Amino acid sequence: MAEELGAEVKGVAKGDLCFCMGPHRSFQQLDARDAHPIPRGLTPETAVLARLMGVSMTTLMTTAARPGDRIMVTGAGPVGYLAAQMFALTGYEVLVVEPDETRRRQVVLSGLPCVYDRTPVDDAAVAGKVALVLECSGHEQAVLDACKVVRKRGEVVLVGVPWHRRTDAYAHELLSLVFHNYVVLRSGWEWELPSHVADFNPHSIHSGFDTALRWLAGGSIRTEDLIVQVDPHDAQRVYQDLLHRRAKGLFLVFDWTQIESSQKKGGQPAGPGNA
Prior knowledge:
about 280 residues; Rossmann fold; six-stranded parallel β-sheet; 9 helices
């Protein structure tokens, strides 16, 4: 909520609920152009998902694949789930690969029926016919498999973070697939776009956030029963639950109003020593 405004601020009024980026804390201070008023009827805990949508929004804006093409998302965690929703919304035929049964069920319930527990590299109806793979798992085997299913000059975009080595695969296998299948293997770097639109840059990070907020407000991105609000005081437990796949819900959203409530009652604010 906008609590204080500079004298020259326009487009934001005191009391407006806004979406913005910043570190985990109970207040932010930023330029007015970096604050996006939340559309009427959109709850804050849903609006904050625009941040995660921005991760793959860049790929949506830069890919050579076009609506009607078949695309695949590997890894249906928070980022991958939203990527699948966005590409389906904009007219692509979306396939999703996710080994976790609960997450596969979440994707199906969202309206996307083509879900696999592993990449169908031997399925003649799929292999060689995918225009784009958004690799959101960070697993090197998923990258190798993606290079096997894309069509010639198809794109494999590395969105997921490869936190640690998971296989004994050699680089030669990847290089051979890229060379012989004419694969466009590239980074999913979300900051490839400029921060704001300009005369010769009609798309930007922040225009993507505006689009994401409109889609969320219109109900085009399905999030029912997937958002769980948590107390920032419980941050360590929340992160451990995420690490060990114990978390309930796909999206865990810190509710900073609980910090304010605690302070009014004389409690201690969350910080490095008591988060």
